[in-house]
Amino acid sequence: MEDVADPEPLRLYTADGVRIDAGHLRGADEVCFVLAHGFTCSWRQPALRRIAGALGRHGGVLAFDFRGHGRSGGHSTVGDREILDVAAAVAAARRRGYRRVAVTGFSMGGAVVVRHAALHGGVDAVVSVSAPARWYYRGTVPMRRVHWVIERRLGRLAVRMARGTRIAPKGWDPVPEAPHQLAGRIAPVPFLVVHGDADAFFPLDHAHQLYEAASDPKELWIEPAFGHAEVAATPDLINRIAKWSTDAVSA
Fold first, then answer.
1. For residue 211, which of 197, 225, 198, 222 has the smallest C-alpha distance?
2. Are 192 and 123 in contact (CB under 8 A)?
3. Which among 93, 75, 74, 80 is positioned nearest to 30, based on CA atoms?
4. Is 0.90 topped by the overall pTM?
5. Average pLDDT over residues 115-125
6. Which residue from 52, 117, 218, 251 has the least number of CB within 10 angstroms?
């Protein structure tokens, strides 16, 4: 995490017993940002470390690897049981004395923080960046590749070798509720949807579907020339997200 002290290493455990690798940057006791990465990413990667460093100028940060990613245990369920990973991270932030917790998720992580806030609660602000509103979307070339990785044995082997991501071989049973089906249950917690008009994975209708399904208080930011998720996020965007979050939890 750039320009800040080394994070405190954490080992968390989810309600279903999965070990989660995490790092904590101490901030003022008022707010902690829980940072949820996208599919095949890790909090230890440079893009996530830059984001954590920017958020760390506004409060504490607790970043973690989803199950099946990086140094965490288990296998990825690509948005289903990952809500338990977020719950473990939020609980860890609360144990460290933070009075307010703002969850910020990118792509798959954005879908997960929506689902977590709706089903588990216990957070004070929710930010979903570059997230899908619905499952099984194959309307872009990148998403057709993602589905090949998830659904084919060869694809799962390839992403494990290339990215270290371990995907559960069995599909969803039952299929979990999609983010847009749950977004209305986040209120009265403030909810921010952020999406780029240059996103190659999910077109803008995903952002609009999420926003329209949510209840107030909510905001929608369509970012000009912004691509997809962590890699495309600029320091200015992260600082604006942090400012929105601190204002939201103080309202």
1. 222
2. no
3. 93
4. yes
5. 98
6. 251
